[in-house]
Amino acid sequence: MTAATLTEQDAPGVAEHRVGVLTFFDDTMLVFRRQMKLSLRNPAWVIIGLIQPILYLAFFGPLLATIAKGGLLGVSRTDPYSFFVPGLLIQLGLFGAAFVGFTIIADWRAGVIERFRVTPVSRMALLAGRVLRDVVTLTVQAGVLVLAGLAFGLRAPVAGVLIGMCFVAVVAVSLASVSYAVGLLLKSEDALAPLLNMVMVPLMLLSGIMLPMTLGPQWLRDVAKVTPFGYIINAMREVFAGHYATTVVLEGVAVSVGLAAVCLWLASRAFVRENA
Amino acid sequence: MRRRGWDSRRYPVIIEAQGLARTFISRKRTVEAVRGVDLAVKQGEIVGFLGPNGAGKTTTLRMLTTLLRPTAGTAVVAGCDLLSDPVGVRRRIGYVPQAIGATAGGTDPNCLVGEELAIQGRAYRLSAGQAAERAALLVDQLELTGLETRLCKTLSGGQRRRLEIALGLIHSPAVVFLDEPTTGLDPQSRSNLWEHIRGLRERLGSTVFLTTHYLEEADALCDRVLVIDNGKIIAEGVPEELKRQISGDVVTLTVSGDPVTAKRILGGRPGVRETTADGRAIRMTVEHGEEALPGMLRALDAAGISMESIQLARPTLDDVFLTLTGRSLRDDSPAGHQQAPAGDAAGDDVTEGGKR
């Protein structure tokens, strides 16, 4: 070995041209493409995630339709599915995204997280690329669910359905990012599973996915008021009914976007910190 | 076989750490995993970080690779400051994580080998073309030919480890950090991997910093060894020098004459440290044993004592470690931890790699 061969190595063969936002965007797409490829290689989970809401649609929907005819839902609707499908969409968003934390534990265990943390790739992009994958997956699932709802008798304006899907996407951003952060902090499936159940089941029950919270006593409605998903689901039901410029929709937008911002910020702390 | 022709005086320092320390809080107990490590590695050197499990090897490595923020101290790696320019450090180093323990070596079991190499190149900002070119070269050099379209989970342990090393080298880094590169491999894969690590310097001129708790590995691979115990560097040097300075050679002579006289004669000779007689066999620790032997033989001959056998044993790095710490490096058993001095917090598994 000569000194010449060493000096050639002085300058690492690394091109550095783009910085800041562009780099972050590139890195996010890099992570997104990798995660998407992995999801498509093993689509079983995507399909299983979709089966549950479709089962609800098939086995619970008809019951709800009967109840609606008796006026029990407390809403003046001719179409119970425009009440029910938004609920199922949120349920899909809640559970589809909340459990992604398990995948980051597997990644951490494989050493994949550490491996990318040592590359120049933005650590924020390791989160953002994964969240983007989940949003895309859930939006596709939501689309399939809406189509199935149409088959059952859902009638809603196209614009309303599209806005509703945006709500699902924003909910997915919130829950997926928090789930990744918690997974990365706990590093244990055994700890994550009970924690998720403990948090998600009350949140789901209090959001009025199955039945409107207006059916409940005052105290239950008060408790529901401090959880975020009730606002979002009410807004979704409004847009499915074709009402867009209402206070309820505005509240839903504010709550969902605010929640997503807070969740992303918290999660980014977990990803960027230097001792995860 | 061994290449020790590397001359440190000709090359600049590429890793320099001062007072690097890391404290963990675990179960309300403060654990000082690394307590002020100073080290300097020159360009092109192969340096081994040797110590028992829990000595602070991995923690130090994780600090030098920007995975863990030091609680005190600083370091300059490949010209970039660890604290003020961590991204600069990341661009210039390659890191191959430990493959055994809570986390594995960094490949996704459901990714194709080729995909892993490609994305790694992209992550280091290589163009798709450059990444493919580097990948092809590394596949060839690390004997991964034909495996590009296989899922990582189908690789053997040795193949997977070679892939992980290829990932760490995709961007021709100036410095490569290898954490326990051969732990968990069978002896054949191990010596095969040693060849590849030696090749890193010969072919690429890379600086290699590796941790190991295998003495044979440090001995076979490294130009210089840093011995770490209890979060501190307790010795450093060329393996041969360390062994000579700290342990000396072991000379065993079996005499046919009077062992007591023989012991007295030999014990008085320069460079002889310890002398014990066991029957007619006399066992001595001798500095520069091979040079001392002829004189010993002549002295015994002059006293009329004849010999039956002569044995000269080189000390191992394990002897060095034993001399330095009173503990054997191989001793990973709980009993070994009990022998550790009181307050030996670094013996705890928690200290390496943070939460387990």
List keywords for this structure.
heterodimer, A: 276 residues, mainly alpha, 13 helices, 76% helix, disordered N terminus, B: 356 residues, alpha/beta, Rossmann fold, Alpha-Beta Plaits, 6-stranded mixed beta sheet, 4-stranded antiparallel beta sheet, 12 helices, 27% strand, elongated, disordered C terminus
Structure description:
The complex is a heterodimer of chains A (276) and B (356). Chain A has 13 helices and no strands. Chain A is elongated. Chain B folds into two domains: 236 residues, P-loop containing nucleotide triphosphate hydrolases (Rossmann fold, 3-Layer(aba) Sandwich); 65 residues, Alpha-Beta Plaits, CATH 3.30.70. In chain B, helix 6 links the parallel strand 7 and strand 8. In chain B, helix 3 packs across helix 4. The C terminus of chain B is likely disordered. The chains are: A mainly alpha (276), B alpha/beta (356). At the A-B interface, helix 1, helix 2, helix 6 and helix 7 of A face helix 2, helix 3 and helix 6 of B.
Please report which band the strand proportion of chain B falls in: under 5%, 5-15%, 15-25%, 25-35%, 35-45% or over 45%.
25-35%
Low-confidence regions of chain A: 1-18
Helix content of chain B: 25-40%
* Domains of chain A (count): 1
- Quaternary state of the chains: heterodimer
Radius of gyration of chain A equals 22 Å
At the fold tier of CATH, the topology name of the largest domain in chain B is Rossmann fold
Which chains have the largest interface?
Answer: A-B, 36 and 54 residues
Compute the average pLDDT of chain B: 83
Order of helices and strands of chain B: EEEHEEHEHHHEHEHEEHEHEEHEHH
Shape of chain B: elongated
Number of strands of chain A: 0
| Sheet of most strands of chain A | none
- Separation of the first and last Cα atoms of chain A: 39 Å
The total count of helices of chain B amounts to: 12
